[in-house]
């Protein structure tokens, strides 16, 4: 006798002992065998039985889902990379650093400044009290002189192209 296949998922059908009923061992669809006729008795809920499907059946679904996922992520990355111009990308890390800021946040901003100054053509000067410098060691000294629990007023100055060029930190009295 030829192997019977499920019409829902193409899985192998298992015959009962009497040969009158068959059940798909993958998706649960039940069939009644009546001579040459095969009658669907009930259709198994494929969505609840996906874990039972064989890898042979699941592979096309996985390949399609993976391809769609990669495509969507690629589109999102492409769109997001074009939303911001170079100036916006450069300034983005400092977006919420202006105004009254807690010392911890100002110290973190100074960490970003030293990192940016190492890796970018656009340099940021830091001014606090009488000190004003681009030098990494000086900026680190300024950072260490700030009190973590104190509040500071932070202002930015921009160059002619719109890049942040100076961060001015003032004590709040």
Written overview of the protein:
There is one protein chain. The chain is of the alpha+beta class and 173 residues long. It folds into 3 domains: 1-52, no CATH class; 54-83; 86-171, no CATH class. The chain has helices at 55-83, 86-91, 103-119, 136-145; strands at residues 13-15, 21-24, 30-34, 37-42, 99-102, 125-128, 131-133, 151-158, 164-171. The termini are far apart.
Keywords:
rod-shaped; single chain; 3 domains; 5-stranded mixed beta sheet; 9 strands; alpha+beta; 4-stranded antiparallel beta sheet; 173 residues
**Count, helices:** 4
SSE succession: EEEEHHEHEEHEE
Mean pLDDT: 80
Helix and strand composition category: alpha+beta
Q: Major beta sheet, specifics?
A: 5 strands, mixed
- Tally of structural domains: 3
Strand order of the largest sheet: 5-8-9-6-7
Shape: rod-shaped
Number of strands: 9
Low-confidence stretches: 43-48
Radius of gyration: 33 Å
- Rounded to the nearest angstrom, the distance between the terminal CA atoms is 94 Å
* Beta-strand percentage range: 25-35%
Task: Name the helicity range.
Answer: 25-40%
